[in-house]
Amino acid sequence: MPETYSAPRLLMNRLRQLMAEGGETAERLDRVVKLIAGTMVADVCSIYLRTPNDELELIATEGLRPEAVARTRLQLDEGLVGQIAMSARPLSIQDAPRHPSFSYRPETGEDPYHAFLGVPILRGGRVQGVLTAQNRTERTYGEDEVETLQTIAMVLAEVLASADQNGPAISHTAPTGPASLSGRALCGGIGIGQVVFHDPVVPAAKFFAADPQRE
Questions:
Q1: Minimal CA–CA distance to 45: which of 69, 19, 12?
Q2: What's phi and psi for 120, nearest 5 deg?
Q3: Domain tally, the chain
């Protein structure tokens, strides 16, 4: 009796084959969204990439208008995609347009789509982007679909990181010159020192000093 494959397993097998084919990053991402949409029976699959100035740019889509690619940008806390990026957690909604965080972008042509599933693309504890799936009809995505999309997002994180090492395949206008950043204080006081940016991100092993008084 021939072996049968569930949709998530079939999707991962095909994704592995697709990644082995190589090619330009933009072309591979286009093939990825088509593969996900076809296997998950989703009307839309899209990838949003976090830009150097902390926007979420639509870089690949199957189902939305092609002209929206590289044109649609969301603030990091804007819309359902922004909510996923800020929380770094999956989000599944039966009727997305009725959600209070929904942000309508007419250039995407997403008017007919209701069901929404999105997962963060994480690497080193940092959100690199968001992977989404949408359907015209209202529906609830199963746990296996959420887990499969999360696994694919992990693969995408490595693909995007590899592309950055070889020169970014997706062009962005990076901010130059001095930057002013807002942080969140854990305790009162003043700190003076040199700021060092770690890339890839180095996970913090300790958040508090052994001797807080001396610190």
A1: 69
A2: -75, 145
A3: 1
